[in-house]
Amino acid sequence: MRLPELPFVLRPLGPDGGWSYADAALSGRAGPGQDRFVPPGGSALDPASDAPRLLGTPSGDFQLIARVRAGLRAPGDAGALYLHVGEREWAKLCLELSPDRPYVCSVVTRGHSDDANAFEVDGDSVWLRVARTGSAFAFHASTDGTHWTFVRVFTLGTPEEVGAAQVGFLAQSPTGEGCEVLFDSVELRGRGVRNLRDGS
């Protein structure tokens, strides 16, 4: 799939998300019980659960930005920007029902997943941003698409894997009957984020 806002092709990964693009918006859906998570208390051999993803490979430093809306009905329902380095090396930045209010949440997986809430969202949408600057990745979120709140900075994998990272979109519904997601205001900037905490 090609989005006019992005210079790379997006390819589906995981379960079928019914991805479609119309009226400058990308839509998709997670099915019942679909999630992308490796419980931190589990075995190192436990498989990662899976959810619909749509990913492409940017070059150099970048910022992927999108406003996400999600039909948040059950705990864990979410729409997310997703970063993939390897089968057990990935991260996601979500608008998620956690457990009964919308929050910006993030997960970084290095073998097992962590899980952290950043801030509560007043409404049904939020802007999300994932950026690569050199060997580091950063997550930010915004209520207006202009002023950005720092969520976290991290790295994943080897330098070679960082340079080949895939980025894109995810839908999940780990405890529910499914979750519709919509991404608009999609933008790719060909630079990283130099100051993580000044709101830019």
TrEMBL record:
Q: Which Gene3D superfamilies match?
A: 2.60.120.200
- State a single Pfam family of this protein: DUF1349
Q: Which protein, by its recorded name, is this?
A: DUF1349 domain-containing protein
Superkingdom of the source species: Bacteria
Which source organism does the UniProt entry give? Streptomyces cavernicola
The family database entries (SUPFAM superfamilies) matched by this protein are listed as: Concanavalin A-like lectins/glucanases
